[in-house]
Design brief:
The chain has 213 residues and is of the alpha/beta class. The protein has a six-stranded mixed sheet. Strands 6-7 form a two-stranded antiparallel sheet.
Amino acid sequence: MELLMKEDWMKIFHEILSPEDIVCVQCENDKPGFDFQMVLRCIQEIIENDGCMMVPLFTLQTLDPACRGIDADRWEASRRQITGFDKKQTITGCAESCMLFLSGVQRTRHPVYSFGYSGTLPEAMPVQNFPTVLPPGAKFIYLGAHPERSLAVDQNAFQKSIGTIVVQRAKIKWGKQIRFRSFVHFQLSNSDRMFCFKECDAQKLRKGLYFFK
């Protein structure tokens, strides 16, 4: 991906976004000089309060060890080491974490698959049974070399009943208490993900998918 200035990004986003859009932005670009926070500010200037800009802030380290393939004899020790999810203190360690430093940004409470967002959160999100599946009509922007990881692929697969529903649990802070919370999660195998990605990529203009490699 060539390095673009703010004026370049604003021109691109004005062509593909409207103020009332719900847009999910993902970044896996580690090229020197790439300023993801600037990209988010550009989108934030376009998406008004009636719309919503969302960035995944997933924190897999809060998952119970039984959900992470850890040997059973290490579960108890691993559980004691897990820090319960706190939407103000738990960081993701990825590029998207810069979203939390933008003005007006809030974070959803899911202990693993939380989102940072500005604007008006879609009504379905706080009680979303499948947290990585966004509401119909959402737009997706992915910046990086692996667009098959875009949540647009998860949404496409879910709509076509491709994938598996699993039960997971994670450690979460609830007031002064720390406890485990169970939830259902929609996941894809690598082969299903690539199959759905190819379909998304072929139809991206119609579906509102935008990949910047």
